[in-house]
C-alpha cells in the first residue's frame, strides 16, 4: 500500500508559542527548566497532531531550539573557538551565544537556506575537532516513542550537505578539504545511526538538499558516506531526501546505496517526473514523492495531483511509494483554523501545514482505493470559486501593465548625468544613513495592539507614531547622521505593511513562519490582481521631512522582495505578478517625489534569495527582476536619488543585474558575512554609489569604533571614496534602543576618524 509521510513540521506554534518561549528565556522571564518543559509539551503536541491526522511516517528531531544547522554543529562540537572549547553537550546559554553573539564574540554568520526566506547559522569549521556531544536524534526518537507510541522517522541533515553549507577560513567547504572533513565527520554519523538502530528506528531521513545543486564529481562523496552508514548500521533504512529542485544526475543519485529517495515533484519544473519516466526507478527502493507544495499556501488541485500520482505509480509499485509535501512544512504557517477574518472565498482556497497533511492523507487514501469523493469535490469547488472571482479577473490592471511595458522603462538620463544633477542634495563625502527601521519597542507594539483591538483611537495612535518619529529624528540629528529615516514604527513588517495597503493582497491573523531564530514573519497573501489605490507612505514621510532640515528618505519595498516574502497566487506566473506590483509601487514613488521627497529607497533585499537553484533558469529570473524594479523607479526626475538595499547574498554572480537596476545608491550586507561581500567588488568595478554595511545588526553586541573603522578602511581599498556610503548591515527594528544608539554613535565616530585620516574637510 501507498504510505503518507511528512518531512518536517513548523516550529513556531499556532500562535508563536515557541518564539515567545525563546524570548522569555533570553529575557530571564522563565528559567531553563520551564523552557525545557514547555518546549517539550509543544513538540509533543505537534507530533500528536500529525498522528491524529493519519500520517504514516512522522518526522522526529525536526524540532530545534533555534536552527537545524546549528543543531548539527553543536551536537558534533563544531563550535567556533571564540565561544570556548566544549567537551560535553552545550548548555542553552552556550548554544544561543553562537547564534546571537556575546559581548566579546561576534555571532556566527547567518545566510539564506537555499532560495527560501529561512536563515541558517553557517558553521565555521576552522580548527574544529569533531566529537559527538549530543545524540539529539536518539533523544527525540525515544521521546516520541515513549510518550506517544510514535515510531518516528528521525530527520538529520546529511554529512555532505552539512559540510558544503559550512565554511573554513570564510570560504565554503569544497574539493579536497570536503573529502578530508567528511572522513573526520562520518564516525559521528555512524555513532548516531548505530544508536538509533539499537533503539529500534526503522527509517532515518537523511536530508541531502545539496544533491540538487551538486556537480557530478562530488557524487562519490555522497556514495562514500552512504556506504559507511549502511555498513555501520544495516538495520536502519536510509531515506535520502532532496527538495527545492530536480536532480541533474538522476540515475547516478537514485542508485546510490540507500533504501529510499525523496524527490520534489512540485518545484522541479517537471524534470524529476521526466527522469522517472525515462529511466525508471529501482524496484527495491522507496520513492518518497513530494506532490503537495510545501512552500506556498494554496489548496492543491487534488484531481491534478491524482493524475501526477497515477504517473508515478506507472513507474513505482504501491508498496514502494510514499506521498508527502515537497519539503519540510517549516516554510508555511500551521493552520487556517485560526483565520476568522479572511474572505471565505480566499480562506477556502488556502492550505497551511495541517491542511497540507490532510491533503496528503486524502491522496494516499485515494491511491489505496478508498472513496474520497467529498474531499475531492470540496477541493474543486473552493478552487473554482477563487479562480473565477473578480479578485483574479481585473481588466484594468491587465491593461495598465500592458501600457507601461509598451513604453521605455529607463531613467531620463544615464547615471553620470544624474549624479551631477543630484549635487543639489549637498551630501558630504562618506555620507551616513541607516537602512530604514528603528527599534520596535514594547511601547510601540503595545500601542499597535491597543489600536487594533479598538482600545486606542486612530487619531491617538497616529499621534503616538508621530511622537516616536520625532523622537528618533532628533536622535539621528544628535548623532549627526546625514540622511535620516522616519523609523517605520507604523510597520510590523516591511512586506506585510504594503500587503495591507495594496488591492489584491490580504494578510492573515496567524500566518506566521520562522525567518531566523525567534524571528517570525507573517507574509502577506497575493490572492488577486494587484492595484495601487491611494498613497501608502507619503503622509508619514512628509511629516518626518517637516521635522528636520536634513534629508529624509522615503522607504518602500520592491516588487521581487514582496514576491519572495509573500505567499503568491499560483495561477499566474510570478513575473507577471511582479509587473503588477512594480506598477503599483511606481505610483507610490511618483507620489513621494511630487510631495517633495528627494531620496527614495526601494528595497530589494530578497533579489538574490529568489535566484533559481539551477543556473539555466537564472537569466530569465534576473531579467524579470530588473524589469519589475525599473517599472517602479524610472519615472522620477534626475535630481531624485533612488536607493536600494540587499542583504544575505553572495553578490558576485548577480553584480551585472545589480548594476542593471540602475539605482543611484545600493547598500548591501557585509559585516555579518565578515566582510566577504567586499570580494565581489575586488573583481568587478561598480560604477555607482554603494554602502557596504559596516556593522552587524543581528547581534545585540555593540561594535567598537575601531572595528567599524577597520570595516570602512577595508571597503575603501576597493571602492572609491566618492562612491561610498556608511550604514549598518540592515534595518534596526529587532534591536534595543540603547544598543542601537551606541552602535550608531560609534559608526559616525568611525566615519569621522576615517575622514580625518584622509584629510577630508568638507
TrEMBL record:
It is an enzyme of class 2 (transferase). The gene is metE. It comes from the Bacteria. Residues 4-316 form the Cobalamin-independent methionine synthase MetE N-terminal domain. The lineage of its organism: Bacteria, Bacillati, Bacillota, Bacilli, Lactobacillales. Zn(2+) binds at residues 645, 647, 669, 730. GO terms for molecular function: 5-methyltetrahydropteroyltriglutamate-homocysteine S-methyltransferase activity. InterPro entries: Cbl-indep_Met_Synth_N, Cobalamin-indep_Met_synthase, Met_Synth_C/arc, UROD/MetE-like_sf. HAMAP family: Meth_synth (MF_00172). This is 5-methyltetrahydropteroyltriglutamate--homocysteine methyltransferase. It comes from Loigolactobacillus jiayinensis. Pfam families: Meth_synt_1, Meth_synt_2. Binds 1 zinc ion per subunit. Its cofactor is Zn(2+). Keywords: Amino-acid biosynthesis, Metal-binding, Methionine biosynthesis, Methyltransferase, Repeat, Transferase, Zinc. Belongs to the vitamin-B12 independent methionine synthase family. Pathway: Amino-acid biosynthesis; L-methionine biosynthesis via de novo pathway; L-methionine from L-homocysteine (MetE route): step 1/1. The active site is at residue 698. Catalyzes the transfer of a methyl group from 5-methyltetrahydrofolate to homocysteine resulting in methionine formation.
Amino acid at each position: 500500500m501507498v504510505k503518507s509521510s511528512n518531512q518536517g513540521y513548523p516550529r513556531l506554534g499556532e500562535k508563536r508559542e515557541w518564539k515567545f518561549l525563546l524570548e522569555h528565556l533570553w529575557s530571564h522571564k522563565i528559567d531553563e527548566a520551564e523552557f525545557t518543559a514547555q518546549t517539550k509539551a509543544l513538540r509533543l503536541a505537534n507530533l500528536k497532531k500529525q498522528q491524529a491526522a493519519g500520517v504514516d511516517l512522522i518526522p522526529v528531531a525536526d524540532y530545534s531550539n533555534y536552527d537545524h544547522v546549528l543543531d548539527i554543529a553543536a551536537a558534533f562540537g563544531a563550535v567556533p573557538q571564540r565561544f570556548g572549547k566544549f567537551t560535553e553537550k552545550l548548555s542553552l546559554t552556550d548554544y544561543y551565544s553562537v547564534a546571537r553573539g556575546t559581548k566579546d564574540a561576534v555571532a556566527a554568520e547567518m545566510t539564506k537556506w537555499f532560495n527560501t526566506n529561512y536563515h541558517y547559522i553557517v558553521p565555521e569549521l576552522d580548527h574544529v575537532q569533531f566529537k559527538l556531544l549530543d545524540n539529539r536524534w536518539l533523544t527525540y526518537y525515544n521521546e516520541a516513542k515513549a510518550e506517544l507510541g510514535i515510531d518516528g522517522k528521525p530527520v538529520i541533515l546529511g554529512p555532505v550537505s552539512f559540510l558544503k553549507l559550512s565554511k573554513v577560513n570564510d570560504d565554503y567547504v569544497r574539493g579536497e578539504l570536503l573529502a578530508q572533513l567528511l572522513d573526520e565527520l562520518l564516525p559521528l554519523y555512524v555513532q548516531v545511526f548505530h544508536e538509533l538502530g539499537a533503539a529500534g528506528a526503522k527509517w532515518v531521513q537523511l536530508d541531502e538538499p545539496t544533491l540538487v545543486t551538486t556537480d557530478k564529481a562530488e557524487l562519490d562523496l555522497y556514495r562514500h558516506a552512504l556506504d559507511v552508514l549502511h555498513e555501520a548500521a544495516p538495520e536502519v533504512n536510509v531515506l535520502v531526501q532532496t527538495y527545492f529542485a530536480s536532480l541533474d544526475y538522476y540515475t547516478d543519485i537514485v542508485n546510490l546505496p540507500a533504501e529510499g529517495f525523496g524527490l520534489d515533484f512540485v518545484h522541479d519544473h517537471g524534470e524529476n517526473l521526466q527522469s522517472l519516466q525515462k529511466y525508471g526507478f529501482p524496484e527495491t527502493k522507496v520513492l518518497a514523492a513530494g506532490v503537495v507544495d510545501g512552500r506556498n499556501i494554496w489548496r492543491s488541485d487534488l484531481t491534478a495531483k491524482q493524475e501526477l500520482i497515477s504517473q508515478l505509480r506507472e513507474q513505482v509499485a504501491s508498496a514502494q511509494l510514499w506521498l508527502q509535501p515537497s519539503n519540510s512544512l517549516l516554510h508555511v504557517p500551521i493552520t487556517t483554523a485560526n483565520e476568522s477574518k479572511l474572505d471565505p472565498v480566499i480562506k477556502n482556497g488556502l492550505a497551511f501545514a495541517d491542511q497540507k497533511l490532510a491533503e496528503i492523507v486524502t491522496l494516499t487514501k485515494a491511491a489505496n482505493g478508498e472513496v474520497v469523493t467529498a474531499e475531492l469535490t470540496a477541493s474543486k469547488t473552493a478552487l473554482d470559486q477563487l479562480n473565477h472571482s473578480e479578485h483574479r479577473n481585473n481588466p484594468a490592471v491587465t491593461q495598465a501593465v500592458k501600457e507601461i511595458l509598451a513604453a521605455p522603462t529607463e531613467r531620463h538620463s544615464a547615471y553620470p548625468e544624474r549624479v551631477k544633477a543630484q549635487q543639489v542634495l549637498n551630501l558630504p563625502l562618506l555620507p551616513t544613513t541607516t537602512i530604514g527601521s528603528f527599534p520596535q519597542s514594547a511601547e510601540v507594539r503595545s500601542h499597535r495592539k491597543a489600536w487594533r483591538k479598538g482600545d486606542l483611537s486612530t487619531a491617538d495612535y497616529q499621534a503616538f507614531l508621530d511622537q516616536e518619529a520625532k523622537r528618533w529624528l532628533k536622535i539621528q540629528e544628535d548623532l549627526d547622521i546625514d540622511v535620516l529615516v522616519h523609523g517605520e514604527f507604523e510597520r510590523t513588517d516591511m512586506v506585510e505593511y504594503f500587503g495591507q495597503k495594496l488591492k489584491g493582497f490580504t494578510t492573515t491573523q496567524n500566518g506566521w513562519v520562522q525567518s531566523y531564530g525567534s524571528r517570525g514573519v507573517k507574509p502577506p497573501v497575493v490572492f488577486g490582481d494587484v492595484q495601487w489605490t491611494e498613497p501608502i507612505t507619503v503622509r508619514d514621510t512628509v511629516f518626518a521631512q517637516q521635522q528636520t532640515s536634513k534629508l529624509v528618505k522615503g522607504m518602500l519595498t520592491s516588487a521581487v522582495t514582496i514576491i519572495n516574502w509573500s505567499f503568491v497566487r499560483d495561477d499566474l506566473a510570478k513575473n507577471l505578478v511582479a509587473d503588477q506590483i512594480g506598477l503599483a509601487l511606481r505610483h507610490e514613488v511618483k507620489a513621494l517625489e511630487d510631495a517633495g521627497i528627494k531620496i527614495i529607497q526601494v528595497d530589494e533585499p530578497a533579489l538574490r534569495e529568489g535566484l533559481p537553484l539551477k543556473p539555466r533558469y537564472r537569466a530569465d529570473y534576473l531579467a524579470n527582476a530588473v524589469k519589475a524594479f525599473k517599472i517602479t523607479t524610472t519615472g522620477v526626475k534626475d535630481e531624485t536619488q533612488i536607493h536600494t538595499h540587499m542583504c544575505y547574498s553572495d553578490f558576485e554572480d548577480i553584480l551585472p543585474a545589480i548594476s542593471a537596476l540602475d539605482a543611484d545608491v545600493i547598500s548591501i550586507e557585509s559585516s555579518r558575512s565578515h566582510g566577504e561581500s567586499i570580494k565581489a567588488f575586488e573583481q568587478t568595478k561598480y560604477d555607482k554609489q554603494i554602502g557596504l554595511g559596516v556593522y552587524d545588526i543581528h547581534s545585540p553586541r555593540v561594535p567598537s569604533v575601531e572595528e567599524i573603522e577597520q570595516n570602512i578602511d577595508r571597503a575603501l581599498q576597493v571602492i572609491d571614496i566618492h562612491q561610498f556610503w556608511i550604514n549598518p548591515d540592515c534595518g534596526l527594528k529587532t534591536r534595543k534602543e540603547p544598543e542601537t544608539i551606541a552602535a550608531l554613535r560609534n559608526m559616525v565616530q568611525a566615519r569621522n576618524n576615517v575622514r580625518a585620516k584622509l584629510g577630508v574637510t568638507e
